[in-house]
Amino acid sequence: MLTINYTIPDPELSVLGRSQCNSLKQNLVPKITGPNPELEVGLIIVSPMRRTIETALLAFGDLGIPFEAHAGWQENSTQPCDTGSPIPSLKSEFPQVNFDHVDPVYPDKTSPSGKKYFNTKQAIMARGQEVLRDLKQRKEKAIIVVSHSGFLRAGVTGRWYMNADYRVFDIADEDEGNVKIQEREWTAKEGGLGWSFEERVELGDGLVDEIEEPVLD
Q1: Does the pLDDT value for residue 217 go beyond 60?
Q2: pLDDT tens-digit profile of 143-186?
Q3: How many helices (H) and strands (E) does the chain have?
Q4: CA distances from 80 to 47, 49, 63, 85, 144 (A)
Q5: Which of 14, 93, 98, 165 is the most buried (most CB within 10 A)?
Q6: In this structure, are residues 169 and 181 in contact, taking their beta carbons and an 8 Å threshold?
């Protein structure tokens, strides 16, 4: 029986998660290496959470591609499992990753200082546009982003992601001030591994408009 514990702070990958990373590696690495790769990847961006960093390193750590942590790609909720660790501890734990450009407020997403990371519809949709604009202005031909299903689905792409599955998008020109993306056909149904739901969802789906304050007796 699979049990889920949301109270573990910034958890590591489980044994199952590591196995799923191996499946990702076997599927995607051949597409981005060799003399005629389908994608010329020049950078790997990771959410600064342990499970995403471990996913990136397990799947792509042998490729010689630089890794950069980016707080904008963290998960939505404020539960312990979705709240990151202090950057100094991560730097010593994962020396392969560049943490120099992580927002200094990380991992705060509950105080006024961390307002841009609040678990609200307005903040998450704005953050989705911010990270897309960041990708658009970078010089690399292709970038791998290792992020989280909730944020990717509700804030960025409107698509489902099961653990370790992936999708490929091209970034288009802005439309009415919003950065648009177009998924490539070979992942456009159930993801590159075929593990994800095909249904699309509207950006912002399931997100709350405001943070609910606790009621004090």
Answers
A1: no
A2: 999 999 999 999 999 999 999 999 999 998 777 788 999 999 88
A3: 5, 6
A4: 15, 11, 32, 10, 26
A5: 165
A6: yes
Cβ neighbors of 92 (< 8 A, separation 6 or more) are none
Q: Helix, strand, coil proportions of the chain in percent (round to 5)?
A: 35, 15, 50
pLDDT at position 173, please?
77
Q: Which amino acid is at 35?
A: P
Q: Token pair 């995403």 is at which residue? A: 52
Higher pLDDT, 51 or 209: 51
- Residue 67 contacts residue 56 (beta carbons within 8 Å): yes
Q: Which DSSP helix (H) or strand (E) runs through 98?
A: strand 97-98
- Residue 19 is given by DSSP the state H
